[in-house]
Amino acid sequence: MPDISDMAVFVKIVECSSLTRAGRELRMTPGAVTKRLNKLEARLGVRLLNRTTRQVSTTEAGSHYYDKALAILGEINWLENSLSTLSNNPRGLLKITAPGLFGRIQLCPLVLEFRDRFPEIQVHLQLTDRIVDLIGEGFDLAIRNSRLTDSNLVARKLAADRRVVCGAPSYFEKFGRPAKPADLLDHECLLLRFPGSKQYRWHFREDGQNTSLLVKGSIDSNSTEVLHEWTLSGAGMSMRSTAEISDDLRAGRLEAALTQFIPDDRAFNLVYPKREMLPQKVRVFIDFLFNRIGKQPHWDAGLGF
């Protein structure tokens, strides 16, 4: 009988493009990963991967096997998840992805609390500012503050995403404070850039209308963590969620600008693949987040705008 675990190891190697990185994610030594791959290729009688010292790539047979293996593992995962809904004891691996800075500040402490409450659920949390392919990469749930465009996914509003322009006191002392969105054209704006990113346009609410402004700056990054550090250093202004900077605002490390123009149509959404039955591990985590965050998130308390 085929060893499904060998198939899973192969899929992870392809996704990581590296035996070493696959081993780290699977908590296996590189030697053990290589041994499993060799065993799989020997059993199938074909070479699945072209290997160099730096990376691996699929052969034609490997590409075909990867597509089929991904579908099979997905079906097995669905079957196990559907059976878990019949249990009163949620368990299994829960894969979550969230934006970097929001995830570190708001989500990481909640994951520890959730783990203590549901010890038989293992949580894999990936923090990234790119839009993850939930189905293709096997994630159960994402927290996103971007609009949903994939009809294969479901989105539920978790909390409002109040986004403000902010800067360090030193920046405003040196360059002044914008009075209206158009003034940003004369300022250094720190931008989040990655393939598909649209955050070089900042959104506002002016005269009862939603508007956007094409801003610019001399430095940008694909990481909200980097933008946060640059903003704190006084290198420029950025547009950030209050969920990410509320502590900095209260401590005076950052100051908000243009607060009268905050858009009211932004939200943090819980996004997950459409399924006949939502796995119990996902359902209890969603309920947990709604209970802990609530309709009035703690991070907005006392900000004064």
Per-chain topology:
Layout: H1 4-16, H2 19-26, H3 30-44, E1 49-51, E2 56-58, H4 60-84, E3 92-98, H5 100-117, E4 121-127, E5 141-144, E6 153-160, E7 163-167, H6 169-175, E8 191-192, E9 201-206, E10 209-214, E11 220-221, H7 224-233, E12 238-241, H8 242-251, E13 255-257, E14 267-273, H9 280-293
Parallel strand pairs: 3-4, 3-5, 8-11
Antiparallel strand pairs: 1-2, 5-14, 6-14, 7-12, 7-13, 9-10
Helix pairs in contact: 1-2, 1-3, 1-4, 2-3
How would you describe what is shown here?
- α1 packs across α4 and α2 (19-26) packs across α3.
- This protein has a five-stranded mixed β-sheet with strand order 4-3-5-14-6, with helices on one face. A three-stranded antiparallel β-sheet has the order 12-7-13. A two-stranded antiparallel ribbon has the order 1-2.
- It has helices at residues 4-16, 19-26, 30-44, 60-84, 100-117, 169-175, 224-233, 242-251, 280-293, and strands spanning 49-51, 56-58, 92-98, 121-127, 141-144, 153-160, 163-167, 191-192, 201-206, 209-214, 220-221, 238-241, 255-257, 267-273.
- It has 305 residues and is an alpha/beta fold.
- 39% of the residues lie in helices and 22% in strands.
- The chain has nine helices and 14 strands.
- The model has no long low-confidence stretch (mean pLDDT 88).
